[in-house]
Design a protein that fits this description.
The protein is an alpha+beta fold and 97 residues long. 43% of the residues lie in helices and 23% in strands. Strand 1 and strand 2 form a beta hairpin. Helix 3 crosses helix 4.
Length: 97
């Protein structure tokens, strides 16, 4: 809403933000935070790569995986799937002992 606009104007992509509030589901069923309080924790020192071009340099993608996951949803989804598979295998391996 209107109360959120000044905070949004003061932040940029890549800034770290802390929030307090309750958890809710959006109209699409996604989990979200109903923010009661927001605090800017730290400003980003450098801007994020271009939204459309992303990280073109392959070496930079491997050196800065965190940045690749921020700007590339496909990489983020692959990472999340790999983490779920690893967790499943660990749980299954621990149960089989």
């Amino acid at each position: 809403g209107a109360a959120f606009r000044p905070f949004l104007d003061a932040t940029d992509g890549g800034d770290f933000v802390g929030v307090k509030g309750g958890v809710k589901r959006t109209d699409k069923g996604e989990l979200s935070v109903l923010v009661a309080e927001a605090t800017l924790l730290t400003k980003a020192l450098r801007p994020l790569p271009d939204k459309w071009k992303g990280l073109a340099d392959v070496n930079k993608r491997y050196r800065q995986r965190y940045l690749d996951m921020i700007v590339n949803p496909r990489v983020r989804a692959t990472f999340a799937a790999r983490a779920r598979i690893t967790a499943y295998l660990r749980r299954r391996g621990a149960a089989g002992r």
